[in-house]
Specification:
Helix content: over 70%
Distance between the termini: 28 Å
Radius of gyration: 19 Å
Number of helices: 10
Number of strands: 0
Order of helices and strands: HHHHHHHHHH
């Protein structure tokens, strides 16, 4: 098992590298190149999502997890809440200065930092990847996210400047915190392995959620992935409930 925040450290490094490169290059990175790279990452995300989804021992558990989780996600409006948060931050950063105060030319350091932090710290890959890294030391999902964030940091830094690089600190704090909490949770339960029943079904359900990201990267379909996040919590709860009822699966 690797160090529980290995994936987060890799992610922070790619944000710093991509942000630094974007600051130096500006908008010189061709749009077609960015699209092709993202499509390639989308294909690999599709492969990872499928490989995770097929690990289930009972397809009904991920099925009910996704159904219940999506209903909860839509009822709570998770995706809309995140969008409103982004719009609020953008409006606060874009507000006019007080009368008599000079307007600062170009984006500020805070704009780059906060915008990039929202982009890198919000989403299913962030949460599921951090949990997987903390529970099992598997940073596969965070490695994929790291590549995507590296190119995103490059693009953001080209327009927002060096403040994007500072968002690596937010990535370290948020994702690292989630991974450490997951590790402590696993320790409290006496250890968790890949063969633990609720871990298997949570991984399979997470694979379904990851597929929604692959579809987005491949420009196939925009699915409100954030509203599927409760499904990741539903899977272990269903497994534990079935165990309590003495139902084999």
């Amino acid at each position: 098992m690797s160090f529980p925040i290995t994936g987060t450290l890799i992610n922070a490094a790619t944000v710093i590298g991509g942000g630094a490169l974007g600051t130096l290059l500006g908008n010189r990175l061709p749009e077609k190149m960015r699209q092709t790279v993202l499509h390639g990452l989308g294909l690999m995300t599709l492969v990872v999502g499928i490989s995770m989804a097929i690990t289930t021992r009972n397809i009904l558990i991920p099925l009910f997890s996704v159904l219940i989780g999506s209903i909860l996600g839509e009822a709570l409006g998770i995706e809309s809440a995140l969008e409103r948060l982004g719009q609020w931050v953008e409006s606060r950063l874009g507000r006019r200065p007080p009368a008599g105060q000079l307007v600062q030319a170009g984006p500020t350091l805070a704009q780059g930092f906060i915008t990039a932090s929202l982009v890198f710290c919000v989403g299913p890959l962030t949460i599921l990847g951090s949990i997987q890294d903390g529970l099992m030391g598997d940073f596969t999902l965070l490695s994929i996210k790291s590549l995507m964030d590296g190119f995103a940091a490059m693009a953001l830094a080209a327009s927002l400047g060096g403040g994007v690089i500072l968002s690596a600190g937010a990535v370290l704090g948020y994702q690292g915190g989630l991974s450490v909490l997951a590790m402590l949770f696993a320790t409290a339960l006496g250890g968790v392995t890949r063969q633990t029943p609720w871990v298997i079904e949570m991984t399979a359900t997470g694979g379904v959620v990851i597929l929604s990201i692959a579809f987005l990267l491949l420009d196939l379909k925009r699915i409100r992935a954030a509203n599927l996040l409760p499904a990741i919590l539903m899977a272990p709860l269903i497994v534990l409930l079935l165990g309590r009822l003495g139902i084999a699966f």
